[in-house]
Amino acid sequence: MSASTALLPKTSKKDDHPIFLRVCHSPWISISQRVLVTARGLIAIYMTVVFAMLIYYDVEKAEHGWLIPFELPNIIYLLQVMYTWMTFVSLGYPI
């Protein structure tokens, strides 16, 4: 097997970077890391507000209010909101 196989340990650590730099690094020079993290936070806030609005609309318009949390579109959107918050919180500003 070659040395580039993902599951094998690397022999040299010279190309290894911290996870923060690997995931939260912009490929464009004009976008700094701080701007990228701020944009990710704004997207997480936006998705949370939209999720609250969708649930409120479903509660107001549906006859079966107690089934709303168990509908597939609501579960999927909740998982997407949770993922955006996890990526924003875990990749926030370095301490």
Report what the structure shows.
The protein has about 100 residues and is mainly alpha-helical. It has a domain at about 40-95. Helices cover about 55% and strands about 0% of the residues. The chain is built from 3 helices and no strands. α2 (about 35-60) runs antiparallel to α3 (about 70-90). The chain is elongated. The mean pLDDT is about 80.
Keyphrases for this structure?
56% helix; 95 residues; elongated; mainly alpha; single chain
Note the topology.
Blueprint: H1 19-23, H2 33-61, H3 72-90
- Which H/E pattern describes the elements? HHH
From the spread of the alpha carbons, the general shape counts as elongated
Care to count the β-strands? 0
CA gyration radius, whole angstroms? 20 Å
In the predicted model, the low-confidence regions spanning at least 5 consecutive residues are: none
Summarize the biggest pleated sheet: none
Straight-line distance between termini:
39 Å
Strand content: under 5%
In helices, the fraction of residues equals 55-70%
Structural class: mainly alpha
Number of helices: 3
